[in-house]
From TrEMBL:
<dbReference type="InterPro" id="IPR000182">
    <property type="entry name" value="GNAT_dom"/>
</dbReference>
<dbReference type="GO" id="GO:0016747">
    <property type="term" value="F:acyltransferase activity, transferring groups other than amino-acyl groups"/>
</dbReference>
<dbReference type="InterPro" id="IPR016181">
    <property type="entry name" value="Acyl_CoA_acyltransferase"/>
</dbReference>
<feature type="domain" description="N-acetyltransferase">
    <location>
        <begin position="14"/>
        <end position="153"/>
    </location>
</feature>
<protein>
    <submittedName>
        <fullName>GNAT family N-acetyltransferase</fullName>
    </submittedName>
</protein>
<dbReference type="Pfam" id="PF13302">
    <property type="entry name" value="Acetyltransf_3"/>
</dbReference>
């Protein structure tokens, strides 16, 4: 069994499209939004590194180890980040959603939960995955809390697991969502996205949701 790239996954807040070199300038602008590459607990490409990072992800995609996406705001078309299916095991099947980053101004707008909804829906409902995994640095508490809000459960911690550009060897926290848990997770994610859609509508006076 081969898990093929699903192509474009379109949502109401965010659209995920296959990563391409033509996205370079938009991705540079997105990573400059908040200087995301300066975060020490994750790997986010700097403007100077972006071309090599796109090539790296496309090479891994050609080798079958990754399926890469560029994220855009659906309303404006502005590029806001990157995400992937990775650590693909088509024999189970099982995948990880990772290597994700988003421009600082997109945080709290609902684009990230909808991005996860689109990816999880494809993984569970098209590929019929048994589980979908998420990994993050033990010290990256915002990421850990965001993964837990998705409905994922912690599987464990891989201690002294991988070295980051900042120079330290991180402990990696592993979370997952199983196929049996997906229906409940989907309901929760759909409700979160709907709240953001309603808050962003012209008739709404509600503040932006977190």
């Amino acid at each position: 069994m081969t898990l093929r790239h699903p192509g474009t996954l379109a949502g109401r807040l965010v659209t995920l499209e296959p990563l391409a070199m033509e996205h370079h300038d938009g991705l540079v602008a997105a990573t400059e939004d908040g200087e995301m590459w300066r975060l020490t607990y994750t790997r986010i490409p700097s403007p100077d590194e972006m071309r090599d990072e796109i090539r790296r992800r496309l090479r891994l995609q050609d080798e079958g180890g990754m399926l890469a996406f560029t994220a855009r705001r659906t309303d404006t078309g502005a590029i806001i980040g990157m995400t992937t299916f990775m650590n693909i095991d088509a024999s189970v099947p099982r995948v990880e959603i990772g290597s994700t980053w988003n421009a600082e101004s997109s945080h709290g707008t609902g684009t990230n939960p909808e991005s996860k909804l689109l990816l999880l829906r494809h993984a569970f409902e098209v590929w019929e995955c048994s589980a979908v995994e998420f990994r993050t640095d033990f010290f990256n508490r915002p990421s850990r809390e965001a993964i837990e809000r998705l409905g994922a459960k912690q599987d464990g911690i891989l201690r002294a697991h991988t070295r980051l550009p900042a120079g330290y060897v991180r402990d990696t926290v592993v979370f997952s969502i199983t196929r049996a848990e997906w229906p409940g997770v989907r309901v929760g994610l759909e409700a979160r996205v709907l709240r953001h859609v309603e808050a962003a509508s012209p008739d709404s006076g509600s503040p932006r949701l977190g």
